[in-house]
Design brief:
With about 90 residues, this protein is mainly alpha-helical. It is built from 4 helices and no strands. The protein has one domain.
Length: about 90
């Protein structure tokens, strides 16, 4: 409601409406899967690796480093796959 009052006194309210209308009509690919792969997957892999390595190595500092290295390797693999996919387009 406060937004409507603000827009009523604005001299560019018609321009804003046109811009938002054009943006809403824009069609493009979904980025949800890419966002999950880029942000959520490395975190989940890190947590899973940390839990597995903690159980195997009995709470040593090495388990954290191994989990971190596996997560870093996953990130590099994801980047390489993304580069290959973008080259093929």
């Amino acid at each position: 409601m406060a937004q409507e009052k603000f827009c009523q006194s604005c001299n560019q309210k018609h321009d804003c409406r046109e811009v938002y209308q054009e943006l809403s009509d824009t069609k493009g690919p979904s980025v949800a899967l890419k966002a999950v792969v880029a942000f959520l997957l490395p975190i989940l892999v890190f947590i899973a690796c940390l839990a597995a390595f903690e159980a195997i190595l009995a709470k040593t500092g090495l388990s954290f480093l191994l989990a971190l290295s596996v997560s870093f390797a996953l990130i590099l693999i994801i980047k390489a796959i993304n580069r290959q996919l973008s080259k093929n387009k």
